[in-house]
């Protein structure tokens, strides 16, 4: 996979005192990630099966959607999701950019016409994100960490925003439990960097439990 920046430049950034964490923290975090993703995949397996069938019956195209995202230290990886849009969604994006409701380089739109019927439901309930448990198991993501951005979004980051790339991206973080689409892009980046500075095992566990509360039925999920 390609990298958006050199390892050396990120090493210099990570060496700053405010980002240093103990080896014990990273070891415990990885154990939690492995056990959490394995248990999670077992528990949600019926949901995964039902969702896969529903997507196939609802619209043409593959069940899963793999998209390049920027991970830790700028490493690009394939992030998995259930497909929630029509197969030519990227081609239709140019016609919708003027209706963007999100500040910064991200695109968000209420009642996006590219979203399928099943897609609307699995986005509202965050079921579309469940395949990312495989990314966690593979070590590309963590259960808790800044949400990974698209390469084109990272390309438009202000220098201070790139600090979020020090941490391994995750399924959930402050943004997911504090408003999601109601938070503008710059505030989202600030929350991600707040996590990078403050992360510890206790905080990770708190964010996991807070995420479970909003997972099925978050009014800010779109």
TrEMBL record:
| Pfam families in the record | Bac_transf
Keyword list (alphabetical) reads: Membrane, Transferase, Transmembrane, Transmembrane helix
Q: Which residues cross the membrane?
A: 34-55
Bacterial sugar transferase domain ranges (all copies): 29-216
Q: Name one GO molecular function term.
A: transferase activity
For this protein, the record's InterPro entries field holds: Bact_transf
* Protein family according to the UniProt entry: Belongs to the bacterial sugar transferase family.
Q: Known PANTHER family for this protein?
A: COLANIC BIOSYNTHESIS UDP-GLUCOSE LIPID CARRIER TRANSFERASE, SLL5057 PROTEIN
- What is this protein's name? Sugar transferase
Q: Which organism is it from?
A: Clostridium simiarum
């Amino acid at each position: 996979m390609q990298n958006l920046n050199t390892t050396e430049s990120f090493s210099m950034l990570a060496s700053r005192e405010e980002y240093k964490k103990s080896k014990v923290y990273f070891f415990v975090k990885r154990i939690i990630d492995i056990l959490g993703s394995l248990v999670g995949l077992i528990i949600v397996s019926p949901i995964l099966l039902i969702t896969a069938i529903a997507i196939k019956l609802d619209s043409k195209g593959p069940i899963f959607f793999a998209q390049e995202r920027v991970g830790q230290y700028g490493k690009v990886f394939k992030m998995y999701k259930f497909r929630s849009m029509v197969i030519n969604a990227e081609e239709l994006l140019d016609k919708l950019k003027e209706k963007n409701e999100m500040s910064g380089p991200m695109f968000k739109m209420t009642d996006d016409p590219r979203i399928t019927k099943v897609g609307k439901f699995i986005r509202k309930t965050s079921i579309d994100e469940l395949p990312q448990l495989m990314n966690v198991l593979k070590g590309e993501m963590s259960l808790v960490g800044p949400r990974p951005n698209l390469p084109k979004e990272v390309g438009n980051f202000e220098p201070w925003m790139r600090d979020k790339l020090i941490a391994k991206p995750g399924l959930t973080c402050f943004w997911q439990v504090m408003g999601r689409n109601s938070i503008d892009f710059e505030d989202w980046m600030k929350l991600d960097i707040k996590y990078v500075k403050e992360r510890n095992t206790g905080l990770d566990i708190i964010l996991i439990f807070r995420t479970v509360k909003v997972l099925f039925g978050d009014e800010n999920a779109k």
